[in-house]
Amino acid sequence: MPETALSLTDRRVARAVELVWREAELLDRPDYAAWNELFTGDGIYVVPIDRDATDFAASLNMVYDDARMRRLRVNRMTEGYAIAAVDAARTVRTVSRFVPESVADDEVVLRSAQVLIAYKRGRHDIWAADLVHRIRLSAGDPAGDRIALKVVRLVDSDDAVPAAGFLP
């Protein structure tokens, strides 16, 4: 693929970056139902324990959510009494350092960095991660672009991780 095709100025890459930023904003709002709608029907959201894992289905993960599990996660965070929802942290995510890994007319794979600040019970926690998003581009309207894969590789994934229902 020509190097110019892997530029942040490529309209396809710009669409993918905008979707990732929209996702971060929805999570911080927190509008988990709208966040879930950003995924394709076969989309996967994964937080691996092993930072080098590539076969997520055969690896131990903190999170490995297909559509059903994402829906259950959203229900747990938004319906009824769940400690994860009642005592949820307020968050602010910054996603930057976008690097296009591959670009095609129907799909863009982006690597990026995320810093997440969570505030709960008078305490701030900092979470840092390398992200990979595989974005399926719609043929026309960018509003139809969807996340086919989101991988969150926490920098400290092999350490003890406290409960973090806000991690998406």
TrEMBL record:
User: Looking at the keywords, is Manganese present?
Assistant: no
Top-level taxonomic group: Bacteria
Record bears the keyword Transmembrane helix: no
List the source organism: Amycolatopsis suaedae
Q: Which family does it belong to?
A: Belongs to the bacterial ring-hydroxylating dioxygenase beta subunit family.
Enumerate the UniProt keywords alphabetically. Oxidoreductase
From the UniProt record, which GO molecular function terms apply? oxidoreductase activity
- Return the InterPro entries for the record: NTF2-like_dom_sf, Rng_hydr_dOase-bsu
PANTHER family linked to this entry: 3-PHENYLPROPIONATE_CINNAMIC ACID DIOXYGENASE SUBUNIT BETA (PTHR41534:SF2), BLR3401 PROTEIN (PTHR41534)
Biological process, per Gene Ontology:
3-phenylpropionate catabolic process
Q: What is this protein called?
A: Uncharacterized protein
